[in-house]
Design goal:
The protein is mainly alpha-helical. The chain is about 80% helix and about 0% strand.
């Protein structure tokens, strides 16, 4: 796989990681505001979460467009496998390993966000939770 392809994907995945960290922080703050029964802060934090979510969608779209733009279908398949959590392979370079590590980190962070979001959503919505 070309170094530029991997580096472009790594940049997007690092951006995604930063956005997931921001989203996790806002979600934790949301939980604290719910614990305090602070409805103003809760509404504000729910609204604030929209920005990183929109940017996450844009980063995902950019990665998909990058894969679609690749002329080499084999290279596109390798990149897709890595982005879906596949390993780097034995002959992978350092940049590919960094990309694999970032993908794994992002998956863990996304799980933290969704787990916390599920708990908060069920606390707020009770029987009308989006997760039921």
């Amino acid at each position: 796989m070309e170094e530029k392809t991997v580096m472009d994907a790594l940049v997007q995945m690092k951006r995604t990681g930063n956005l997931l960290n921001e989203l996790l922080d806002l979600t934790r703050q949301l939980g604290e505001s719910i614990d305090r029964n602070d409805q103003v802060s809760t509404q504000m934090l729910i609204a604030m979460r929209e920005e990183p979510l929109g940017k996450l969608q844009a980063a995902d779209k950019a990665l998909r467009e990058q894969m679609e733009a690749l002329d080499d279908r084999e290279e596109a398949g390798q990149l897709a496998a890595i982005l879906n959590g596949g390993g780097a392979g034995d002959d992978a370079g350092r940049t590919v390993e960094m990309l694999c590590d970032q993908v794994a980190l992002n998956r863990r962070r996304l799980k933290q966000v969704t787990d916390l979001d599920r708990v908060l959503n069920q606390r707020i919505a009770r029987g009308k939770s989006a997760y039921q």
